[in-house]
Amino acid sequence: MPIIAPSLLSSNFLRLEEECKMLNESEADWFHLDVMDGRFVPNISFGFPIIEHIRKATTKICDVHLMILEPERYAEAFKAAGADQLSVHIEACVHLHRNIQQIKSLDMKAGVAINPHTPVSLLQDVLGDIDLVCMMSVNPGFGGQKFIPRTLDKITELRRMIDDNKLNVLIEVDGGVTIENAGAIIDAGAHALVAGNTVFKSSDPTKTISQLKHIR
Ligand code: DX5
Ligand code: ZN
């Protein structure tokens, strides 16, 4: 069964406590938390205070997706705020290997996020050092965008790289995941599904999470 990671970017921030409670009681596995700086991506989301509150409201894994430049300046602060896993964008890191070591030294799982235009082959020399690839299936910055179909081939290629080298790396697919395309994404080789709008804009988010969980 896939790992389900609802993205709280699409949740109702005025009712964050209830949203967390709903996720706690659902089949969701991870809380996906999208941090945007208005520089790496053309949008600003939320930061430490919100993550600290969410941390207090759940014991599930806090999966933090950094869409920020110079993420090394903030890794320690995200650990302190409660992140269990921290993903940095390959396109935002000049010294990616060093950044990964930093995240691991802070005792978090290390993830690398890649944009739709970035070839998965660029991950080859760090794949053995990381726990997670956050494969963007939309251009990062906003919830509710359309899934880019080409991502399916990228998932398959990355999964082959992981399996051929007998590595223990999870593929998380992020952006435009729906009930309709989730099966194909899993079949292509993904382990984890991020879902923002599909979960939080549905009439029954708990049921939608369950549907995603049991898609295969
Ligand atoms: C986009 C974020 C995603 C986003 C997903 O930049 O990284 O996590 O919240 O939202 P949906 O599922 O609505 O595309
Ligand atoms: Zn994300």
TrEMBL record:
One of its GO terms (cellular component) is cytoplasm. Catalyzes the reversible epimerization of D-ribulose 5-phosphate to D-xylulose 5-phosphate. Substrate binds at residues 7, 65, 141-144, 174-176. A divalent metal cation binds at residues 32, 34, 65, 174. Pathway: Carbohydrate degradation. Binds 1 divalent metal cation per subunit. The lineage of its organism: Bacteria, Pseudomonadati, Bacteroidota, Chitinophagia, Chitinophagales. Its cofactor is Zn(2+); Mn(2+); a divalent metal cation; Co(2+). One of its GO terms (biological process) is pentose-phosphate shunt. Its EC number is 5.1.3.1. The active site is at 34 (proton acceptor), 174 (proton donor). This is Ribulose-phosphate 3-epimerase. It is an enzyme of class 5 (isomerase). GO terms for molecular function: D-ribulose-phosphate 3-epimerase activity; metal ion binding. Keywords: Carbohydrate metabolism, Cobalt, Isomerase, Manganese, Metal-binding, Zinc. Belongs to the ribulose-phosphate 3-epimerase family. The keyword Ribonucleoprotein does not apply. InterPro entries: Aldolase_TIM (IPR013785), Ribul_P_3_epim (IPR026019), Ribul_P_3_epim-like (IPR000056), RibuloseP-bd_barrel (IPR011060). It comes from Flavisolibacter ginsengisoli DSM 18119. It catalyses: D-ribulose 5-phosphate = D-xylulose 5-phosphate.
